[in-house]
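Collaborator request log, item 7. Partner lab (contact: R.S.) asked for a structural prediction of DUF58 domain-containing protein to inform their binding assays.
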Amino acid sequence: MKNFFITYYKDLFLGKKLFAGIGLCATLFLFSFFLPWLGDIPFVAFSILMALIAIDMILLYRQNKGFFLRRDVPERLSNGDENEINIYIESFYPFATKVGVIDEIPWQFQKRDIWFASNLKARERKTINYVLRPTKRGEYVFGLVRLYVSSPLGLITRRFNFGEEKTVPVYPSFLQLRRYELMAVSNRLSEIGIKKIRRIGHSLEFDQVKNYVQGDDYRTVNWKATARKGELMVNSFTDEKAQHVYCIIDKSRVMKMPFEGLSLLDYAINASLVLSNVALLKEDKAGLITIAEKTGSIVPADRKPAQLGRIMEVLYKEKTRYLETNMENLYTSIRSVMKQRSLLVFFTNFESMSALTRQLPFLKRIAKFHLLLIVFFEDTELKSLTEDEVKDVEGIYIKTIANKFAYEKKLIVKELARHGILSILTPPEKLTVNVINRYLSIKAQQKL
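Returned to partner:
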């Protein structure tokens, strides 16, 4: 008996019904001092309670393996997305049980209420599903899964511990990547805001001579081939391939600002991953550069099957820095790495004209050799302030300042355009869609 309690006391918990029974017995003993007619009723009630406790312990502890439980976690989690976690439970008890599950999820989520209550019939199986949305890349450690079981009596609860600590990496949003890729393959990109861009003229890359079908442009008729074959033939053109597309990510302090749990750096990383995938699907070469006070990682442009995996592995490790961007280092890296004209999508953030003025000389020099697209962020909180109704003098002051900053962002767009630099001013949540739209527009208009 002693060994039994030493072995199981840590996993034995008293239920609410037991405390209610103890309270009832204590009340009967108390009143027996003033009401002699109660006689042996308190002793009988206490004996019944002890017998029920013994029966409950026999029911719960007569099987060493009363349950099987397995937690199914993906090999990696997608940052900023809802990742599904499954807990499979199978009961081996020959009677119905009431269970509660506590999953020790990683501390980064700061959740202490992961409790799932359920009822299982004899030898029943059940799967519990829930989702986790990480907002930071890195390693997340899952602990044990603790299962609390009580019999129909409900006087005591037995705990089972399953699993072991498991470390799961959180990568940039590959779920978003797959969603865009599947919609691109099925030509349903318009459902998520991707616009159909009207192609201007023809690309310069000849594909083949084919038979004319209704709808083909008469200007593409190949008269020599038509004369030889005796039927109308036209030239077919394809998009220019193997163009270099580089995502340049600023990871300085300006990208530390959070929106809906994610930092601007994480929004930029997720968008870069999707853009790189779209570029590879368009048979362009995708590359990556990260920059802060010094040049970070460089992935030369390529379109090999493993290129997207290389980019994802680099992005997984990137973190924001706390110094300003060294634009001179960026310009030097671009000149040394890129030997041909490329599309450079620079993810950064400008809060004022003075911030742009410091970087503008280097941006102009980069734009001489490459097609430069600056992507920076609209402050959605400031925008909401400009739309709020003013109720007092302080509100007028706040709204005036908010309008000033919002107007300055628009001035930055005009200033960049004045120097021939393309730009996108976008809310963080619409970043990916807006960047892909601009890339497709650039391809269609043959600006590169």
